[in-house]
Amino acid sequence: MKAMSVLFCAASAVAMVAGVSAETPAVPTAKAIEQTLDTSAAAWSAGDLKTFMGCYERSPGTRFVSASGTVVGYDAIEAMYASTYKKPGTSLGKLKLDVIDVKELGSQYAFAVVRYHLKPDTGTEASGLSTLLMHKVGGLWLINSDHSS
To answer: Per-residue DSSP letters for 45-57?
Structure first.
């Protein structure tokens, strides 16, 4: 019986070690949010507005707030970007997003402060701050509310 107990404990220990080493470590929230925003900025810089919008939660309640006012709804935000930035014969310009700070608000939400740098084809670079309410949806961190100034 004693040999059986030792064998059981050894088998359990091997199974636990194997289980731990087989698991993929979770990406920290701040890093996951940075990856989402980097992918989005790369799409913008490539002129791909549809892929850029992949960083926003596809929801009628998603919000974009700026000095011009509030735009509510994923489709309305996409239309606003298209009408403001997608002009015939020009690119969207080059976008860089620097994550300054991320504060987790539970397991499904986080608050991020981001500095954006937008260099259009012509004119001067625009730079400012965005505060983003990020929502974890299907394992992805997406913008639920964007306040950019």
So the answer is: HTT-HHHHGGGB-
* Distance separating alpha carbons of residues 15 and 4, to the nearest angstrom: 16
What distance in Å separates the CA atoms of residue 64 and residue 84, rounded to the nearest whole number? 13
Nearest to 148 by CA among 122, 113, 99: 113
79 — phi, psi (to 5°)? -65, -40
Helix (H) or strand (E) holding 126: strand 126-137
pTM for this prediction: 0.80
Q: Percent of the chain scored above 90 by pLDDT? A: 72
14 three-class SS: helix
